[in-house]
Amino acid sequence: MLRTKAFNASPGKMGFKQQRRNRNITPYMFLLPATIAMLLIFFYPMLDGLYTSFTHYNQYTNITSFVGFKNYASILSSGDFWNSMVRSVIWVVFSVLGQFVLGFGFALLLNERWPGNRLMRALVMIPWVMPGISVALTWSLIFNGQLGLLNDLLLRWNLPPQQWLADPNMAMVTVIVANIWKAFPFVAVTILAGLASIPDELYDAAKVDGASVVGRFRHVTLPQLRNVILIIVLLMIVWTFNYFDLVYVMTQGGPAQGTEIAPVLVARYAFQQFDYGLSASVAVVMTLFNILFAALYLMVLRRPNS
Amino acid sequence: MKSRMDMNKDALLSGKNTTFHRMTRRDALRVITATAGTLVAGSVLDACGSTAASSSSGGPVTLQFWDTFTTAEINLLHTMGAEYTKLNPNVKINFYEIPYAQRPTKIPSAVQTNSLPDIIRADYPYQWYLSTQNKLAFLENDLKGWDMRTAIYDTVWEQTSYQGHIIGVPQDKFTDVFCYNQDKFDRDGIKQFPTTWAELIEACQKMTHGDEYGLAFYPDTGQLFTDFLLEGGGKLVDTNMNPTFNQDPGVASLQMLVDLVKKYKVTPPGVTGWQYANSDDALRSGKIGMAEFGSWIIGNYQEAKVPWKLGIGAMPKGPAGNGLISATTMYMVMNTSPHQPEAIAFLKWLVSRQNALRWAKTLNHEPIDKYTAADPYFATPLFKPFQTSLPYASAMPATPAYNAVNQAITQAIQQAILGQKTPKAALNDAATTAKSALQG
Question: For residue B49, what is the DSSP state?
Fold first, then answer.
């Protein structure tokens, strides 16, 4: 009897344990394929890049040797690196500022009701969906000193033509203008979505309290969009900091390194000097900069009194 | 009564897993096996790369062929490839067009990921790069006794050889020459093409008036700087691959460029920011007297029907005499290719005596061999400067680091023209950068 009881009880107890184990393991099994894919296509290249930054590749002997922090010391003492960082800061600050102001303005316009509004909402996305290479080539033609549209317009208005891509500072302005044009629709559409989510009651209440248009914008619209703005600005800064193709196609970092932002320097080290270690070390510094910036940005702006 | 969907919904909302099928160990193993299988299959396919589609067991062969350069060249290459397949039904050629600007990333990436094709058509510095990576098949044994081996000029073979081995089959050579607007020369009263630097300056000054200019160029070593350097008695690097372009002839060469832009003002404004396309567009527009290019321009301009007569002039003599660069475009067979014999046979056919002539005549490219050069088609004044330049032609340094050297010198040219640095200081800085790249 006892023997029978034990025999009967045992499978039930085991089954419960097994069931619990199975229940515990089930979600992880579903996550496994994505996790393995992420490890292979994201973390492995990232770690490999990090490792590469501690190596030197000799293109003549085809030998890669471990050099510790030599690459980092080399870039930190290099004028090219600091030039690229300064250029990157200028590129990011003015691009994001322009994209944000223009995008916000468009969002406010598109949020109003006027004929053709729906069509305009679709059209405004065109620059954002265009490939970066196409945008770069288009703007290169517009800014072309001899055949460009912009100089043609200046001449028609009796203004002197400019050599937009020949002067390092002017070239930086041109790539920033092209970048603002390319990315402002993203800001516009995201802000527009944010505006649509603000309840009309808040505006009605503000009106009852006697708030002017500016007052309603300042005390209703902006606070309600705070989180949207926070995320947009963060994304735009990170994307712009890492953006490569537009500048590379328009100026290749020139003239005289005037537009050599950090990603262009990474490409130059990797594909012209074949110095993969140096290139990877700049890329790692860029990543650290992005992480540090994002953390600080969120920390400061998420404080209740900020 | 609740439907199955409602029950699932309730379970989801309540957080209780009442109706879901629980995953057993066997299910878990299936998931792991399927995931691993997919990844392994993906890796295998990836590792096989571009040659996975072709067989190496004597059956039909598909050669993967990477090509760059102009549309006319690509079209002709495709036509000839199709003809070869007709003659050799077992050999099919898949052409992939690699845009010129993508070569610096595409080729090194293919080397690193072991996904090179069977054949690559390229010019410097990729033969040196692929050689140092030990990716090229040595061709000297396969080319023994081939009639074109002795017919093609030595200066061309020089650029397809590395450490005593032949690593490429040449298809073109492009000697630096001035392409000029004959109509504009006539309009501005220039009777003959300049033969010295002084005459060059004088001619450019005569052609500069209103919105017309004497000379178009873009900051690049291949554009005037190196030729002026050689004509001044200098060299880009010494035999030990140390940069020497910052010595006196280099400084004189850069000073000449700066003077053409700033002192004589014979170039259009803004050339510091120019790239190849800007010079090409400017010359096509008819408002520029001349620009330094190669023979590929002849076919391009004929096809584009430029509304003025094209002339070709040899590089004017410098303080130390004549000197210029002649670059070679070649076909390289990868030693990773399982179809090397088929690839080499195809290339020998492509650059055979008849096909070399056909190539040069169809595209209006300068001849690379004595048979083609002897054809009456190339006895015209348009092709004569290529022939007269041949004795002075030099090759680019045999280094895979040339892109880095080029970039450093380009920056120096821009800095000197912008007045940021003196020619000497700019070239010294460029030499420091170049030295580090040249030493690997």
Answer: G
